[in-house]
Amino acid sequence: MKILVINAGSSSLKYQLYNMTDESVLAKGLVERIGMDSSILTHKPTNKSEMTEVSEILEHTTAIRKVLHALTDKEHGVIDSIDEIDAVGHRVVHGGESFKESAVVTEEAKKEIRRLFDLAPLHNPPSMMGIKAAEVNMPSIPQVVVFDTAFHQTMPEKAYMYAIPRVLYSKYKVRRYGAHGTSHDYVSKEAAKFLDRPLEDLKIITCHIGNGASITAVQGGVSVDTSMGMTPLEGLMMGTRSGDLDPAIVPFVMNKEELTVNEVNSMLNKHSGLLAISGVSSDMREITEGMEKGDANSKLAFDMYTYRVRKYIGSYAAAMNGVDAIVFTAGVGENSTVLREQVLKELTFLGVEIDEALNAIRSGEPRRISTEQSKVEVLVIPTNEELVIARDTFRLVQ
Ligand code: AMP
After folding, report:
1. Rg from Cα positions in the chain
2. Domain 196-380 in the same topology as domain 2-147
3. PANTHER family, per this entry (predicted)?
4. What is the pTM of this model?
C-alpha cells in the first residue's frame, strides 16, 4: 500500500510518499510560495535525481497537481500512475475536542474542521485547502486527517482548564489543547522500545524543541500535561514566539503602544522569542554562534530559552511524581549539544547525569546520552511526524 502524506501551510505544501510494506519513503518534497510569483517545487525521489521547478502556482489544487506530475514523471517519478496511491494522510493542527484520534475525511469531518477555524485561524484553513486540493485531484482515493492536538486529549481537566470564568470554556471551548501531538506520541513510543520497557510503566518527559517547541508529560503512554495551550503560543520560549508571559502584559502593551488585536498577535507570534531577545536570529544555530563570539544578547536569549526548558522538565517531573526518561527531539533538540548540556547539567537534583561524550555524538539514530549511573534515562530520538500520519492513515483505510 502506498500513502501520500500532505502537510499544507498557507503558502507551502510538504509531501512524502510512503511504501507501507516496509515504511520506506519513495519520494518527498515541498512546494513553496503558493499564491506568490515564482512558486518553487522541490521534488526529492529516493534513489533518483532531484527536480526543481519554478512556475506560477496560485493555489493548493495546482500545487498538488504539480506534485502528482512529479511523482509520476518519467525521469524523476517513483510511481507509474496516480492510481498506485491508496490513500492520502493530512496533517491538521487543531482537532479541538471533537477529534480524539485520527479520522477518515467525510463531509461531517470537514464540517467539524471548518467549525474549528475559530480556534486555529492561522493553521486549520490551510489544512482544509490541502484536503480540498487532494480531493479535486484524487477524487476516488480515501483521505485521512491526523491532528496535532489528538494525542493530548487524554489530559485531565485539572491540566487543560484555565482559571478564568467557566463560561469561556462552555461558550468558546477555551482550554489547553497542546500541539506536536504526533511527535510526542512517536518519540515516547520509540523511547519505550529503545529502553525495552513497557510504555505503560514509564513516566516520560518529551521535549520537542524545534522552531516551535513544546514539552509533554507522558505517563503510561498518554499525555497528562503539555506546555502549549489553546494555541501554540503558550509554554516555552521559541524561535519567534514569546511562550509564557504575564497575561496582563497584553492589555498593558496594547494600551501603551496603541496596538490592535492583530498587531499584538503578530508581536507575540512573529517578533518575540529568540529573535526579539538576541536581535540576531530565530535560529538556534545563529544564537549559538553569536554566543561563541561573545554577543551578550545571544547569550541572554540562550540562557532564557534553556532555563525555561529546565523549569518545564522540573514541573512535569513534579506533575508525574517522578520521571524515568527525558527525550529530546526536533531540529534543536536533536542537533544542539550545547542546549542539551545546558538544560541537563542542573537537573542533578532529579538524579540526571549526562555523559558529555555521548551528548556530543551526532547521528540520526535514537541514542542514550545519560551515564549508566543516571537515575533518569536521557535519550535523543529523531522525530518522524510524517511516519505517524502514514501509519494512522494506513490503519484507518485498511
Ligand atoms: P524544526 O522546527 O524541528 O524543523 O527545527 C528547526 C530549527 O532547528 C531551526 O530553526 C534551527 O534553529 C534548529 N537547528 C537545526 N539544526 C541545528 C543545529 N545543528 N544546532 C542547533 N539548532 C539547530
Report:
1. 21
2. yes
3. ACETATE KINASE, ACETATE KINASE-RELATED
4. 0.95
Active-site residue (options: 73, 118, 148, 225) = 148
333 in a labelled binding site: yes
pLDDT surpassing 90 at residue 122: no
Residue 272: is its pLDDT beyond 90?
yes
User: Which atom from ligand 1 is nearest to the alpha carbon of 288?
Assistant: 21
pLDDT tens sequence across 279-331: 999 999 999 999 999 999 999 999 999 999 999 999 999 999 999 999 999 99
Please compute the mean of the pLDDT values over residues 11-38 and round it to a whole number: 95
Nearest-angstrom CA–CA distance, 322 and 139: 49
Which is nearest to 181 in space by CA: 274, 91, 52?
91
Binning the chain into helix, strand and coil, the percentages to the nearest 5 are: 40, 20, 35
pLDDT at 118 over 90: no
Whether 185 is catalytic is no
Is 130 one of the annotated binding-site residues?
Answer: no
From the list 3, 14, 97, the residue with the least C-alpha distance to 60 is: 14
* 59 SS3 class: coil
| C-alpha grid cell, residue 374 | 543516571
CATH number, span 196-380: 3.30.420.40
215 is known to lie in a ligand binding site: no
| 257: pLDDT strictly greater than 90 | yes
**72 CA to middle of ligand 1, Å?**
32
Q: Are 187 and 327 in contact (CB under 8 A)?
A: yes
**Ligand 1 pocket at CB < 6 A:** 210-211, 239, 283-285, 330-332, 335-336
Provide the pLDDT for residue 13: 95
For 123-143, the pLDDT digits (tens) are 899 999 999 999 999 999 999
Superfamily holding 2-147:
ATPase, nucleotide binding domain (3.30.420.40)
For the chain, the structural domain boundaries read: 2-147, 196-380
**113 CA from centroid of ligand 1 (Å):** 30
Q: What is the largest distance, in Å, between two alpha-carbon atoms of the chain?
A: 61
CA of 332 to the centre of ligand 1 (A): 4
* Pocket mutation for ligand 1, best pick of 186, 240, 283 (most atoms within 8 Å of C-beta): 283
